[in-house]
Amino acid sequence: MRQQCWEKAEKIKGRDPERWRRDPLGNIVFGKLVGCPGCLCHDYDHIVPYSSLQGRKKHIRKLSGFTGYS
C-alpha cells in the first residue's frame, strides 16, 4: 500500500521520481526518509481509518500519500 501512496504523490520536475515527491502540502520529501523528524522526512497516514478499508481496493484513492514533518 505504501508504494501505491508514493505513486499517487506529485512528482517534482527535474528530480528522480523514485526518490523525490511532494507531500499534500507541497513540501519536498525523500523516499527513504520515513518516520523520522526532519524537513525531508515523511510518514504514511489514512484519511479513512485503515480498518474500514480492509478488502476494499477501490478505496485506495482515499489514502493520503504521506504527511511531511516540516
From TrEMBL:
The protein's superkingdom reads Eukaryota
A molecular function annotated in GO for this UniProt entry is: endonuclease activity
Keywords, in A-Z order: Endonuclease, Hydrolase, Nuclease
What protein is this chain from? HNH endonuclease
